[in-house]
Amino acid sequence: MNAPSSKGRSVVIAGGGIGGMAAAIGLSRAGFRVTVLERAAEFGEIGAGIQLGPNVFHALKTLGVAEQTLANAVYIDKLIMMDGMTGDKVAEIPVDEPFRKHFRNPYAVIHRADLHSPLHAVNLADPNVTLLPNREVTGFVQTGDQVEVHTSTGERFTGDALIGADGVRSRVRESIVGDGGPRISGHVAYRAVLPIEEMPEDLRWNAACLWAGPKCHMVHYPLRGWKLFNIVATFHHPTRTTEGHNEPGDRDELLSYFGHLPAKPRGILEKSRNWRRWVLGDRDPVGNWSDGNVTLLGDAAHPTHQYFAQGACMAIEDAVTMMQEVRATPDDLPGAFLRYQEKRITRTARIVLSSRELGRLYHAAGVERLVRNDILGSKTPADFYHSLDWIYGYGRDAA
Ligand SMILES: Cc1cc2nc3c(=O)[nH]c(=O)nc-3n(C[C@H](O)[C@H](O)[C@H](O)COP(=O)(O)OP(=O)(O)OC[C@H]3O[C@@H](n4cnc5c(N)ncnc54)[C@H](O)[C@@H]3O)c2cc1C
Question: What pLDDT score was predicted for residue 7?
Fold first, then answer.
């Protein structure tokens, strides 16, 4: 499947998350030798879930990895929004047969490790890909048509191009965009995974369910053949202004922000004692994230709040577009990167900006909450499909 890399073209990728792994597969498929430099001691993902919209199924198929990456996915029946104050259902989007027919793919949820490991395995088995953990990228120097990438180990890696797939606090982005740290929204997310036995029986739904409360919301869905439930609880914190990533959570802090919700949803949060905390940030979209033969991908390029559940899906879509563009002009990587970003900027910026709005809708209070319920509650499945077409319909016609 790989194009021959006879000309010895090579690319260095900073970061081996979902975006970096997908990019490595795409670039190898396009005929490049790839070196992935990962800061962590091991390639892997955190123990939490992720939602996969139909758009990412198209992307995974185009990369040629759909079968293995979706082997452990759970195919849910609906997306549900509940009013966290009354416990009433606000809206439901069936993701059953008509949805699948409309978007030509289903909606699924999956454990992150079950998505990342198969991507990692494909790269591990690929002689054109070298995976190096314990290599934090600290900087790079562009010399002619080469890039020399520096790591904290003191090593230098040279390639024809560098892809910064190093997440929301990207070092590569610092040099290209230079827009400082992420924009901290004051939204804090706690994550935990519950064994199915601990999930209240009357909430074991085959759905991605969101409870929307004033200044907070929580999401739950099943994982791993229904052995686990993924829980994400997000709330406004008045003073946390420093981005935090996968810190140990404080259960009492979490519960104190959900005291105004009824016992049914709040009870889920009381179950886990193993919470992890993220202080969330995104970035204002930019109109350029490339500099010659260096570019960005995934959260490094367009970090977003998780409210459309699309950040990782966007990173995988990025990898597909990158593969297609470098394959089209392998001898002109700067040109390929400009076309790549041109195809990705509007779409990813729309996700970032719309996610901010969606967060406001989820966390609405007072009359705004009533208006939200009125608007969403009156929509038919066809209305929802139509309004979500721009996200989920992407790639449908190419599939
Ligand atoms: C609460 C929450 C829920 C979410 N839910 C969903 C969802 O349901 N669906 C969805 O599609 N998305 C979701 N997302 C978004 C998704 O997690 C991210 O968009 C996605 O993981 C981004 O992948 P990435 O590879 O670009 O970046 P990352 O996952 O951040 O990976 C970056 C990698 O680079 C490494 N790295 C960092 N700096 C360096 C360096 N200097 N040198 C070398 N390596 C480095 C890191 O160790 C890491 O391995 C959610 C996010 C949050 C916070």
Answer: 61
Mutate to test the pocket of ligand 1, among 166, 247, 308 (most ligand atoms within 8 A of CB): 166
Dist CA 311 CA 185 (whole Å)? 17
- Ligand 1 centre to CA of 316 (Å) is 11
- State the pLDDT confidence band at 6, using cuts at 50, 70 and 90: very low
What pLDDT is attached to residue 2? 38
Report the pLDDT value the prediction gives residue 241, as an integer from 0 to 100: 73
The alpha carbon of 203 and the centre of ligand 1 are apart by a number of angstroms equal to: 29
The angle at the Cα of 284, spanning 281 to 289, to the nearest 5 degrees, equals 110
Alpha-helix runs per DSSP H in 160-243: 171-176
**Does residue 145 carry a pLDDT above 50?**
yes
Substitution candidate for ligand 1 out of 134, 157, 277, 299 with most atoms within 8 A of CB: 299
User: Going by CA atoms, what residue is nearest to atom 52 of ligand 1?
Assistant: 306
pLDDT in tens, 292-346: 999 999 999 999 999 999 999 999 999 999 999 999 999 999 999 999 999 999 9
Cβ count near 273 (within 10 Å): 8
| Cβ–ligand 1 contact at 162 (below 6 Å) | no
pTM check: above 0.90: yes
Q: Evaluate: CB of 313 within 6 angstroms of ligand 1.
A: yes
For ligand 1, whether the C-beta of 40 sits within 6 Å is yes
* Integer angstrom CA distances of residue 256 from 234, 253, 262, 267: 12, 5, 13, 13
DSSP 333-378: HHHHHHHHHHHHHHHHHHHHHHHHHHHHHHT--HHHHHHHHHHHHT
Tokens, residue 167: 């997440």
Name the token pair of 101: 């027919």
Structure tokens at 191: 């994550």
